[in-house]
């Protein structure tokens, strides 16, 4: 039986994308990378692994609805059933949410509901708290408010800099996200 197809959406360096595609027993095929930044590092990783890309520029579309309709049509063309956001720095709109109900998942670098939104690692570091974490959650209309699937905490040490903290958080992300993806796919029927 052929594997289910999934797409990863990313805007940045792509370390999570890389961790997902390099997981040896990944239960789905990553059939497409969707990227909204022409020069994002993640595009090179996709090329290296021969994963097709759809790269778009939001400002070339009249609205979020217009670019999301185009994305939905790209995803339908190749029968993608799951979407995994991995550093996709846009709020997902109703067009995508309605096209893929319960099938859009995100990773966020904090222990939600703490520190939602942008710069979550910096927010936690600046707040002076002694733990933060990583959350994998379903996407809904809010900003990092959807139902939580899995979480792991990460300690913040007094000797940490923002960079050392980021490195430890990302190590947790790279382990957690591919494992959660496999669990979700094994539980689902499509
Ligand atoms: C990751 O740390 C991810 O959790 C975060 O962006 C980074 C992307 O890094 N996502 C968010 O902040 C979403 N609100 P990567 O491009 O190296 O995977």
TrEMBL record:
The record marks 144 as: Raises pKa of active site His. It is an enzyme of class 2 (transferase). (6R)-10-formyltetrahydrofolate binds at residues 64, 89-92, 106. The active site is at 108 (proton donor). It holds the Pfam family Formyl_trans_N. Its EC number is 2.1.2.2. GO terms for molecular function: phosphoribosylglycinamide formyltransferase activity. Pathway: Purine metabolism; IMP biosynthesis via de novo pathway; N(2)-formyl-N(1)-(5-phospho-D-ribosyl)glycinamide from N(1)-(5-phospho-D-ribosyl)glycinamide (10-formyl THF route): step 1/1. Transmembrane segments: none annotated. GO terms for biological process: 'de novo' IMP biosynthetic process. It comes from the Bacteria. N(1)-(5-phospho-beta-D-ribosyl)glycinamide binds at residues 14-16. The keyword Ion transport does not apply. Residues 5-181 form the Formyl transferase N-terminal domain. InterPro entries: Formyl_transf_N, Formyl_transf_N_sf, GART. HAMAP family: PurN (MF_01930). PANTHER family: PHOSPHORIBOSYLGLYCINAMIDE FORMYLTRANSFERASE. Catalyzes the transfer of a formyl group from 10-formyltetrahydrofolate to 5-phospho-ribosyl-glycinamide (GAR), producing 5-phospho-ribosyl-N-formylglycinamide (FGAR) and tetrahydrofolate. Belongs to the GART family. This is Phosphoribosylglycinamide formyltransferase. It comes from Oceanobacillus chungangensis.
